[in-house]
């Protein structure tokens, strides 16, 4: 008996102490949707028994947990907020919000990276000679600077991309994505492209790759030299070339599932983990909300523009117009809104805080009117709900176009006519709802039919990187082939030279012949 007890004790101890890795998670973007991703990634890692050091701007709002060490970078919040005013509805409606200039976006996020690497808490962590990690996971936000953590801690690192597969980030783990059928997230095209469409995509990538290899490269390299290199020297660690670091990611996690958009060729180091932020078990709805949804005989339409954009910034005409459109429907409407509105029709309910996953999971939910942020869209697909998309910024246009192309969504533009356009599209979708719903369910089934749940895949691949010391076998060989060779520019040069050579020879022969014949004639 004693022996068995001892044996069991040993089994338990070995189970508890075996596979826990030390992981650094860097998710410093101070926006709620990014925090949802970071928090849920940490949650999955903890559930698998790992110990996580979590760089987050929301540290002051978090409770201490066992196995989590918070590194507070909340000092970047004011800078972020100052720019977030760009996301004001009125400015977007007026077209004055500068959300499409890649240079502006790059400058903004590389400044944030500079602040994070210069943050005293982050620097203390980097300087601590006892600090060791098995692997690092960093959020990719339009700069490559967080790859430099891997030089400090001398361990493999993994990129995490918050948007669907995209040439800018894919460029870090493979060759360029073919612009003939992969759209830049701001171009937001869905293949097949027109001739001009393909030219635009090609030009976008050429311009972007030029920026990445030259302009932006020097800005980032300077930040690396300023913030990280002195620490490497202080600790007596080797100082790798910045280019070596940024192309040395072991994996790229995409917050994406192929069923949601277009399938495009991917390198083996790219892994879909989209949907990992969704709870496997739906949390019960609050009593009042549950009652509204349970009693909605004609079904529920849920309207939410996400957390970045506050619907209270909507112009009054638009608010009243929307209220009128919703009031004219036989369905119950749940409107996520941060203030209470007067004159609410009986079928319209304003919710200031909405447990979105619970609402989308309810059997009476019929339609989701959304800004088409990727988290919302993934949740819609997860629960098989058709969508009306009103994209506002960033990747939302591309998400919306892909969803429409798949047949479970319609798209309208945000404008002063939104209420009128919404009425038109509701009149189109609602009578035909079974068709949209069937399509949504079909895509949902494909999304769910996978060997591993997204959270399991996340842990499997993180552990795989540690077990295989950086997973070098997954890395695309394209990284070792210079761009001019991939594009066969050298062959082009040889062919051009040959053509010019032949032309010269032919001309020479021709001129010799003609001069001979004129000589003969003269004679
Ligand atoms: C969490 O732990 C840190 C350091 O151990 C401490 O300074 C901080 O007050 C704790 N926070 C809470 C909310 O308990
Ligand atoms: C690149 O990654 C591999 C595998 O993780 C590692 O052995 C190597 O030291 C890294 N190179 C640099 C420059 O960090």
UniProtKB/TrEMBL annotation:
It holds the Pfam family UDPGT. It is found in: Membrane. It comes from the Eukaryota. Residues 1-20 form the signal peptide. InterPro entries: UDP-glycosyltransferase, UDP_glucos_trans, UDP_glycos_trans_CS. SUPFAM superfamilies: UDP-Glycosyltransferase/glycogen phosphorylase. Its EC number is 2.4.1.17. It is an enzyme of class 2 (transferase). Belongs to the UDP-glycosyltransferase family. This is UDP-glucuronosyltransferase. GO terms for cellular component: membrane. The chain crosses the membrane at residues 487-506. It is a single-pass membrane protein. Keywords: Glycosyltransferase, Membrane, Signal, Transferase, Transmembrane, Transmembrane helix. It catalyses: glucuronate acceptor + UDP-alpha-D-glucuronate = acceptor beta-D-glucuronoside + UDP + H(+). The lineage of its organism: Eukaryota, Metazoa, Ecdysozoa, Arthropoda, Hexapoda. One of its GO terms (molecular function) is glucuronosyltransferase activity.
